[in-house]
Amino acid sequence: MAGLTATTARRAAIGSRRLPRLSPYLFIAPFFVVFAAFGVYPLMYALRLSFTRWRGAGEATWVGVGNYVYLLTNPDFWASLGNSAVMWLLIVPIQVVAGLGAAVLLANARLRLRGLFRVAFIAPFVTPLVAMAQVWIVVFDEDYGLVNHVLGLVGLPAVGWLTSTAWAKPTLALLFLWKTTGFAIIILLAGLQAVPGAVYEAASIDGASRWRQFWSLTVPLVRRSIAFLVVVQTLAVFQMFAEPYVVTEGGPYGSTTTAGLYLYEHISASDLGTGAANSFLLVLLVFGLSLGAVRLLRPKEEVS
Amino acid sequence: MKQARPGPVQYAVLVLLAIAFLYPIWWALSSSLKPATEIITSPLSVGAVTLDNYRAMFADVPIGTGFVNTALVLAVKGAMTMVFCPLAGYAFAKYTFPGKNALFGVVMLTLMLPTLVLIIPLLLEMSALGWVNTYQALILPGSVDAFSIFWMRQVIAAIPDELLDAGRVDGASEFGVFYRVVIPVIRPGLVALAVLTTMNIYNDFVWPVVAVNDTEHQTLQVVLSTLAQNVTGNRVGADFATVWGELLAAGSIAMLPLLVIFILLQRHFISGILAGSVKG
Predict the structure, then answer these.
(1) What is the ipTM of this complex?
(2) From 2.60.260.20, 2.60.40.1510, 1.10.3720.10, 3.40.1190.20, which CATH number describes the A68-302 domain?
(3) Which run of H or of E encompasses A52?
(4) B interface mutation test: which of A38, A121, A218 has the most B CBs within 10 A?
(5) pTM, two decimal places
C-alpha cells in the first residue's frame, strides 16, 4: 500500500514536470539576459557598424560593403591571415603528433610515476599566458637571453629569436606549444583510455606489430579526440593575440601580426567600422576551417 | 598497449618532456630571486637569494592593485558562474518545457562564437553605457557562460530522477530540490567547475586589456602586460637588468597562486579539462 502511494506520488511529480511551468524558465533566464545584453545586441550593432565608416566619434557614414572590399583588397589583411596560417602549420601538426606520442606512453598501465608526469605536462597550461610571455621575452632576448647564452657556451652564434623575421614566428609558436601541449596530451590520453584493451589483445593474437597496431587501431579509434583537438586549436591559433601583443608587438616588420592582433590594431587606430568588418570575416574563416577539420577527421563510417 | 613494460627509452622521453615543460617555470621562479645583474651575466647559475627584484617591482608597478582587481572580478564573476550555470544546466537536464530544445540550441551555438568577434562591439557598448574603466565592464560580459551550462547539464543528467522525485515528495520547492538534492550530489563536478572558472577568469587578458585603460581598474594580467611593454619599449639604459628582474618577479608572483591551486586540486582540474572534450 505504501509502495503504491509512493508510485502515485512519483507519477504525479513526473506528470507535473511535463506541464509548462515557470521554474525552468527562471533557471535559464540569467544566461539569456546576459547573452542578449552582451552578445546579441553588440553583434547586431557590429553588423550594422561594419557597413559604415566610423572613427569612434561623430557621425557614422554608410559605406555599404566598402570596409569588406577594403580589407579583401588590402595586402596587410592577407598578410595577417598568412602569418596565422604559418603559425597553424608550426603548431597544430607538431602538437597532434607529439601529443599522441606522449599520450601513448602515458597510457601504458605499467608506467610508474604516471601522476607525476601528468602534473608536469599540464603545469604550463595553468600558468598565466602574459606572465610566460614575459619570460619568453627574457629567455629569447638576442643580447642577454638564456638561450643565446647557452648557444654561446657551445660556441654557436647568437640568434635573433624575436628580432628576425625568420625566427620570430617559430619562437612564438614554441610558446604556444609549450603552454598547450599538456592540454592536448590529456585530451588524447582520455581518448586512448576509452579504447578497450580487448581490441589490442585481438590484434596481438592476429600478430599485428606494435606500429601496425598504432596506425591501424589506435589512430582511428582516437580520431574523435584528434578532431576535437584540431578544431579547438585552430580556433585558438587564428585568434592568437596575447603572445604577439606582449612578446613582439607584431614585429619584426609585421611578421608576427596574427589575424587576432591585426583586428586589435583597428581598435587602437579607432577605425571601428573596418574592425567590425574584420571581425566578421575572421568568424567566417574560423567557422569554415573548423567545419573543414571536422569533415576531414570524421570517422569513415560516419561519412555518408 | 597494456602488454610491454615501458623501457628506459620510454622513460627517457617522458623525463625529457617533463623537464622541457617544467624548466621555464623553474627558471623564472629561481631567476626572480637572483640579484638582477646575475640574470643577465650568468643565467644558468643558482646562487645568492635576494628579494630585491620583488622590492623594486612592488615599488614600481601597481601589482597590488592588479591582484585586488582580479580578486574582485574573480569573486563576483566566479560566483555568478557557480550559481547560474548549474541552475541552467539543471533546467536543461531535468525539465521538459516548451522551447527547451531551441533554447538549448542557442546555448550551444554561442559556444562556437569566437571571443574576438565580440571585442569591438562590446567595447562600443561599454562606451555607450559609460562603462569603460569600470568593474561591471570586467564582470558582466561572459559572466554566465555557455560552456559551463553545457557541462553542468551533462553532470546533472547522470542523477537518477528517483532522487529528485523523492525530494519533491518530501515537499521541497523546485529550487529546494536543486539546492538540497542536486547540489550535494554534484559537489565533485562543482569543484572542477570552480577550478576551471578560476583559471579562466584569473588568466583572462583580451577583454580586460580592451575594456580598461586606467591604472585603477587594471587586472593583474593587464598590469603584467604594461610592464612587459615598458621593457620592449625601452631597451637601452643602465637599468636594463633591473627591469628584467622586476619582470620575472611580477611573472613569478602572478603564476604562484594558480600553480598552488593546481597542485592541491589537480584531480578536479584534469576532470575539468576533460569535460571540455566531451563536446567534441
Answers:
(1) 0.86
(2) 1.10.3720.10
(3) strand A52-53
(4) A38
(5) 0.87
